[in-house]
Amino acid sequence: MSRAFNFSAGPAVLPEEVLKATSQAVYDFNGLGMSIMEMSHRSKEYDAVIKEAQANCLKIMNLSPDEYVVLFLGGGASTQFYMVPFNFLNKKANYINTGVWSTKAIKEASKVGEVNVIASAKDTNFNYIPKTYKVDDDADYLHITTNNTIYGTEWKKDPEGVKIPLVADMSSDFFAVRRDFSKYDLIYGGAQKNVGPAGVTVIIIKRSFLETRQRPLENFPSMLDYKVHVKGNSMFNTPPCLPIYVVGETFKWILNRGLEAIEENNIKKANVLYTAMDESDGFYTPAVTAKEDRSLMNVTFRIKGGNDDLEAKFVAEARSRYNMANLKGHRDVGGLRASIYNACPIEWVEALVKFMKEFRNENK
Ligand SMILES: *Cc1c(COP(=O)(O)O)cnc(C)c1O
Asked: Which of 15, 29, 107, 201 is the most exposed place for a label (fewest CB within 10 A)?
């Protein structure tokens, strides 16, 4: 089989080694004569899988298991939009709005309590990350979205001087860039962008943050209670067994390389692509003009400032000539988007740039 150059925003490309290990485990896990899908999540073999994945998650993030706990839950990042405020919003919460996903998180939090959106990039169609904002000292937490999958902006630096708990949706850039993860009290993300298949959400919670939770417990639905899931070690109910296995294999792949090397490679890839656009005499223009905020993961761009016909032709010819897939931008933004997550090799980006030059010569 020859692999397509897959630039999907999510579910997205996974390392071949991970796919191969998973195919084996789907048929016969560890020579047990059973698929990983056919065995009890309470078995000692599966227990080892989930425990190792949790330990490796913290290892990659350089966090101590004494201070942080890892959950693997269903429901997608979208369930966390509600679960975070449901557990932690007492008085009010602060949110920074940097795109479609932040907007959805704000909408869900508003159903639980008072939300103060302390900064927003909505006025310019989310093409930058707000740098000035004032955090309410009496808010329960500040929520940010570190990488904006749809618009293509990314927080390159962690917010500084935040004195209240910090919560982040890192769906599309966790395990891709280094951060000071110890600054965060709760991190969540759907696996399907960078670390696995859809169906599992990775949640990393600071134990002390959870302990200070004040929301009253009566009538608290068990499935929405982080404490219940921590107590059950992510097995309060049947967890998404197969997706967790895949995430565990991806964590091993990341640990083998090291997050620093992965980040370096991601920076290199993004540079190749953005440089090609900057040197295209305006034929290709990045949607994000604030260079420092351009995402390393989702590169959004237009042709001739937004020519729908040429963009459609670009998508079609990329596919028919070189088997490059999923370059169409999100319907809310239009244009083109190349998602170049961890498992996308630099050779794919170089091939894309080569095609971009060819296409530009033919369509000047
Ligand atoms: C994809 C995405 C989501 C939504 O994740 P689901 O798992 O589909 O709920 C949320 N936030 C960000 C930043 C995303 O990229």
From this structure: 107
